[in-house]
Amino acid sequence: MKKVEDLLYVTTSFAYNYPLEEADVIFLGIPFSSTSISESSRYAPTIVRESMKLIEGYSKKFNLNIFKSIKFCDLGDLEVVQGNYFRTAERLIETIKEIKERNPKAFLIFIGGEHLITLPIIETLNPKSIISFDAHCDARKEYLGEEFTHATWAFHAAKKAKIYYYGVRSFSEEEKDNFDFKALREESIENPVYITIDVDVFDPSYVETGLPTFGESGKGISPKEFFNIIENIIKSQTLIAFDIVEISDNEIPSKTAMLASEIIKEVLAAMKFFNKI
Question: Which residues make Cβ contacts (< 8 Å) with residue 144, sequence separation at least 6?
């Protein structure tokens, strides 16, 4: 009897889907959106998967096809509890622990959901450093009377690891006084490193997100700028996982999900090229 992966005319998120224990890269969707204005970000794992089917797996810059050179395992989506961060975080932590027990060497990619999903990931993976690509600091002690929200995750995460910001152009007085927004310098970052990417770090012309931010400069970063920065980080650091959050598109095709797919491709191509996976 043929296995599902042997059938000729079926498709999954990736060209090939390997068992969890054999995978180089593990993909997990976390469709939680309960504290952010980006409510439609709960659909992001679905539209990113669909976009992954549309992009070319070949990276011209690194001269390799990620779908041919990397073993993927798409685990699907975490069964979140909308409206209950603590139950969702508990499920996410347990899931990550089981993944790491069964495949400790795999590189992990998480697709949110809102930015609060980053906190339980950090608490489980225990990186020394966090690089946050975000238009916002997200480091308030509380937001609208709530302690755990998309705007407070970094306040809690900073107790676990050093946070390095890139692209911040909107923050509160409290955050201005307590956090450093100086230019990111890769040589100062302690390994291992976790990267979190809020798509509002990009100029609003490139993405659909709940809180598009123009700032004093009038724009966010470009994809080209991002890819140059991320390549330098991958060259010099030990990256253990990353997430992409706050995608507000809920239709296909989606320019934001297509950009997220290109980020996944180029990050993995760079990691493969530099022998990091």
Answer: none
